[in-house]
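On to our target:
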Amino acid sequence: MKISSRHIGPLHEFGLWIAFAALPYVAFASAPTFAAECKTTALAGLNVPSMTVASATVVPAAAPNPEYCDVKGSVETSGEGAGNGSANFEIQLPANWNGKFIFNGVGGLAGTLNSSANPADQPQFLARGYATAVTDTGHLASQPTWEYGTPGTPDTPKIVDYFYRAVHEVTLAAKQLVKSYYRTETIRRSYFDGCSNGGKMGLIEASRYPTDYDGIISGAPWLDPVGTSLWSLKNTKALIDAYIPQDKFDAVGAAIIKQCDKADGVVDGLIQNPAKCAFNPDALVPETLTQKQANALKMIMNPIRDEHGKLIYPGSSVGNLGQENSSPRGPVGRLDTPPADPNGADPWGSGTVPGNWNLANGILLKLGYYDGGKDLNHSILNGDVVKPDVLDLVYTRLAADIPDDPSNFGAYFARNGKLLIYHGYDDLIISPYSSVWFYEDLAAENGGYEKLQANARLFMVPGMQHCVGGTGPNSFDTLTALENWAERGVAPDAIPATHSANNTVDRTMPLCKFPEEAHYKGTGDENSVSNWSCPAKDQSLLAVGPNGIQAGANAAAPARVRAPAKLAAKSGN
């Protein structure tokens, strides 16, 4: 398993917070009493059902990690109405096993063994003695059309494995290998940690297989890949129609900060609640933007709708309308250069294709139509409205990949499973308001916020981009928060977070449980956590202004399509 190369700045001491956070490592650093040999033949000889062990390698200790056995192989998948498949895995078995197990989610459309777990958590897995696992979910990202054989003919085993089957079956096999390797009957705790697609994977586990995990960390979850892809396509098409160069985006970002920063009571370059803002792109016409460019920004702020005006997916947070992007893979939504052929089926020519366009292609065309060659530019949307035949087809075919039905989490909560969700308000890849929608639906299903918070808590992160990066406090330890909650009954009311520049921490701040908002006490250094608090029972993040209303951040049924009635409501019923 590759640890993400996106580094998180060091966590500084925050008084009792960090003192308490250190307890899990101290308490569970002892080595297991018995273990099998770390050899391919020995591990294959444990005869874990459906598992093929391809290699087992002893990796010497190297700070902060202990010595561990690195196991690679595959699990044969079967059932769920699909033919047999095969999912690759990597399992790491530390010499100082703490009796616990953690599964890493993977990002994008999977197909790799690269972890998408919170980067602040990843270095702690082996160091604390966790046995770890990860899977590619049954296909290789290097195969560009793994979703289908010939256009229109799906590879059903691979699709079902990607949606949910592979993670569950690799989880069962990995747990059995862990128990056999350490010669134990039980695993004390099992956790899941993933962001983006990995965050979605964790939610699917909780909703479909509630006994697999005791606690789940779900970052920026891809709750509705179809809605997200329609939103991404809408946003990219808006910029195809009205190209905006980077210097103009910089000016837009500066204007938004000037307009919205003070709304949270302190001018500190950070917007605590972008939904409360009242930024109008028309105010920058004609000095900065043309009217067409301003209209494009308003389109990006809009939600996705069906033909009857019902909201399918929320619009964009104004917090990052300036398209600041820390992704090492290039532009996500904005265009580096004007499109070569704005009206063509392939508008890009030899130019760089924005990442969100590629994601929309993968979801809507390859997993929706089983044909990546369809005309994405013209066949899906009319502005922010989805064509009805498209909506029916893609939501039907990808229904199993959408874990946003709040009624499906009852069994997980009934066994006291814990769900810790976080999402950055400056996310350009998945609208942060999708997590707000989901959490509000969960609260309605479970008797309100206070009752829901016994099992599920959401932490919205001001200024944070997709999973990492951004101007806000984007580095925080969710693993310790989950351990303290699941193992000691200490629920996280706030999570300490940092922002770093040039590997030096320059800001500390608490992340408050939704709907609470971090409040500055009015005096002292605004960059110090000691001058901020999370007032109990505060509901400041429920406040909306013109920008939140425009994005549908506060929309509820019947104005928006609320799970689980998404398919029925599309037709206007």
In short: The CA atoms of residues 164 and 273 lie 34 Å apart. The radius of gyration is 23 Å. The mean pLDDT is 91. Residues 226-400+545-570 form one domain.
